[in-house]
Task: structure prediction
Amino acid sequence: MRFRYAVLLLAAGACAQPLIEKTAQPGKYIAANGRRAALLGSEDGQLEAWIFPIKLGRGFRLSVYVDQALDPLPLSELAETAIIRPHAVTLVHVHPAFTVRQTWTASPDKPVAAVLLDIETSRPLRFRATFIPEMQPMWPASFGGQSTSWDAKSGVLTFTEGQRRFRPVLGSPAFRRISEQVGHQLPERTVSIEFDVEASGAVPILFAASRKDYDEAIQAPERILQEAEAHFRAFFAKTAELRWGAFSDAYDWARAAIERGWACNEGVGCGLVAGWAPSGASQRPGFGWYFGGDTMISVWAMLDYGDFTGARAALDFLLDRQRADGKIMHEWTQSAALLDWPSYPYGFYHADTTPLFLHTAELYVRQTGDRQWIEQRWPQLERAWRYALTMRDEDGLLSNLKGGAAAVETGALSGRVARDVYLQGVWLAGLRGWARIARWKGAEAEAREAETLLAAARKAVERWFVPGKDVFAFAELRDGTRYEANSAWQGMLLAEGGIEPDLARRAAASMASPMLMTPWGARLFATDSPYYNPLGYNDGSVWPFVTSQVLVALFRHGQPAAALAALDGMRQAAGLAGAGFLAEYFSGDRLAPGPRAVPHQLFSSVALIHPVFAGLLGLEPDAMASQLHVAPQLPCGAPPVILRGYRVGNAVVDGEFHPGRPNRVEVRLRSGTLDVQIRPGSCFESPAPRRLSPGMRP
Result:
């Protein structure tokens, strides 16, 4: 029973890691994520296995023959408890004659994932594992000539494809019998593998990239679990700790969700994907490939909690795939090395990625003080700047017609937008960011050019303000009209655009309206908008990543109570699609994930981090000037916020934030040199906390 012992031992010593123990729910998402392998499935124990960028098979599940039964009993019907940690999930299956604990985990850096079984039984059992072999790479690549071969002596099934470039395996020392094999697997053909258990004990089942990887890992399979636990223990130790009542666990799970977004393979390298979900019969595991905008928004949170190394690696991944004219990528598949990815239309079709990169690069340098990165990447940064200029119209704002999509991809406004407000908010933030980067580089002429363009662009976008509605129009349409609906897409403009303060306050007050805000976040469009659709992907649903920008704007422009209410609502919405995760998007009408929402979406988890640091706590770091500005927005009567290990350049600080009139802020410098400037303000009266229930309406 060594595996059970290992799990309990690690749990006892892993006090810094969050834990969720709950009743198993068959439809809820769970996963074990490593950088080169993943098991994606549900709380009944069904999974699909990926060794990046290849899916080995789907529908993997276990069943057991009890006594003389002719039909096996699915373990999914016996799933009682799910225990979720960042490094592993354990499902407990209980029967009157036996208990099976299956733990899923993946190596943090090797192409190996494991299902570790701890079996307690009072009688001999026969187990059956069934699955559909696929041996297909991630969308949109494909293989031909897939086949399998069975090594009966070692209990290892090897997969391969026609050119034999890849030979991943599934195996266990316990495997004894396999169903009839055909040379080339047919679609939907189910394979069965059986093994016998005479008494209580441990059974490891491994998925690996090669027989060599399998042979090394099977010597001590418990090390996979130990190494995964050690990785997250180190991650939590090196990143900032936040303690604030019920929000503490939400913050911990959010930073773990982002860390679990790394994916690597030999053909593409290592980068942050957008999100994970089981692919089913397709080869698209949620959004398990690389997106430029998603990566940059995730970097905002990585900077907040202090993963500077990860933030730099994520930005470098994007720059290494920059188009020759300077445009920053929108998406890049994990299977890009297996096909001519640039010939597909998806890679660079968004307009917002390039100015968003200028903004995010400035945030990175400002918080880390990494002047060397500017020097190393200056030619690429400058190319991005020059490309962004090509998207301008005569008034200095950016054109979707010249650059591509931004806020709208589908729905009622698809193909009708000439310029949208989100793109302009990103552009103003990018102009400000580039001016600072250029000045840090010593390129004074470019800095002054950006500042001149920024002033003109601010004036131009302020003409989009609709006085009778106190909103910034969502878009100028191709037919020359304006779509003046109240939208969450104003959030970026208000949070980062530096527009006229009175206009920002008025627009923030309009965004706080119940027609736009639900208890769990901001609708993309208010309910009085002509095309409002609560289930529409771009027409009225609630996106946490857009809400994140709205909340920063509300905190900064006089609506902290509305911001706090939505922040707490998103905290409660976390876990509805999968324990520890905040789903991609929600209905605008009821607290429920959207019909095709990805359960583990990285930039959704950012919404439980960035508004806290940039809005609630009002942290404005500037490592280039060795300064930290603090302007907290705290609710009266709330417990203090405790922050430990916050990084600004080489400085590390701890802080305590106490609500009051005025607020009291205590900042202690743990290391380094930093000038801390505090604007304490006063606590605000917030509405009584509201407990949300799945399916409730606003």
The chain has two domains: 2-230, 239-623. Confidence is low (pLDDT under 50) at residues 1-15. Residues 421-441 form the longest helix (21 residues). The domain at 2-230 is CATH 2.70.98.40 (Beta-galactosidase; Chain A, domain 5).
